[in-house]
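User: Earlier you gave me the apo prediction for this protein. Now I'd like the version with pyridoxal-5'-phosphate bound, so I can compare the two side by side. Same sequence as before, with the ligand SMILES added.
Assistant: Got it. Here's the input I'm using:
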Amino acid sequence: MSKDKLIQKDLKNIWHPFTQMKTAKPPIFIKRGEKEFLYDQKDNEYIDGVSSWWVNTHGHSHPYIAKKIHQQLLTLEHVIFAGFTHRPAIELSERILNYLPHQDKVFFSDNGSTAVEVGIKMAIQYFYNQNIKKNTIIALEGAYHGDTIGAMSAGADDSFNIPFKEYMFKVERVPSPTKDKKKEAITLLKKIVKEKSVCCFIYEPLIQGSGGMIMHDKDTLNEMIKFCKKNNIICIADEVMTGFYRTGKMFASDYMKHKPDIMCLSKGLTGGTLPLSLTTCNQKIYDAFLSDDKMKTFFHGHSFTGNPIGCTAALASLDLFEKKKTLKNINRIVKSHQKFSAKIKKHGLVKNLRQQGTVLAFEINTQENTSYFNNIRDQIYDFFINEKVLLRPLGNVIYIMPPYCISKISLQTLYSKVEKALNYFEKI
Ligand SMILES: Cc1ncc(COP(=O)(O)O)c(C=O)c1O
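And here is the structure of the complex with pyridoxal-5'-phosphate:
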């Protein structure tokens, strides 16, 4: 079937995510992917500068991950995970916990949103099981934790959520601990804790991705976690985006002395190959669910919980992370971003340039406020697509978050396209 016919069928049958289907241009048909590249039907090559919604770590269609998945598919594709278990899940839990010495148990689900739902539910039931009444949830302003109702409730109080507001649970919000809001963040946190009975504090450590790559002062965040833990508040680190070296270390929580009680992992977990997520917790949380009373069980699970193929992809991805070359690539990207930042920081359109590890972000200075709905967004996105690079600004926030295997040349191409865009939009 020709590409045009396929696109017609897409337009007829498919409802795409985060897309206004009335006004959106037809989607780009991608035939195949390899390393940092995506190829359309005419073999145009696009550089994936956002790791396909931040999931891809080792490049597209990685042959090693593909081989491992294939072997697993021929062995065991899936089995119910209540009352049954299997090797890939057992191995994965052990290997992940080795990276997280402050965590003791692993709960499986399918995506970032469900990992967050699980984390919040664990925190709520942790107190419920002990007959302790604590019902306030604290989140950060500008947070994004996913699109299911619980994850949305903990997310920013913004336009995405308006139709659902009356169905969402109430959350207290504190400013993100950015360099210019260190004091406000701590002060408000302390005030809420004094006045309310706080159950948990959920945060995206160091980088709030969808909120516009908001970057934290790590000492302030560390202080906030320390304060919460001292006050018997469960700390939930949503590392769905920041995990797997996005911030330069395996986990953003590795930068901090004070560790979360619960962690949510997904996206890079399988190298970006298959949907899988983990919610880990420490022994204290787990123990509160152990009882002869069945009602203290954690009644949560999904049909595909602990899927063996997903677990195998995650194990293969960990194999690749444990190769020296991957860490070398990550360090190369970090240094390369630093050099590029120095080059563009004085450009008239560049505002609030910031970097944390492999993530580089800045705002395009426009007459409008910084926002997901800033009008320049679509023009810049189209500009980049015409230049054959996939960079997907969050409103007027441009960011680069490539797969770690990206070559020096491709990274330089991404930078040069960003500079080209800056020079172009400065003139209009
Ligand atoms: C920090 C964070 N948490 C949760 C999610 C939700 O993940 P998913 O889209 O896999 O449901 C995202 C997605 O971007 C995220 O960035």
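For your comparison, keep in mind: Residues 111-113, 116, 144-146, 204, 209-210, 238, 240-241, 266 surround pyridoxal-5'-phosphate (CB under 6 Å).
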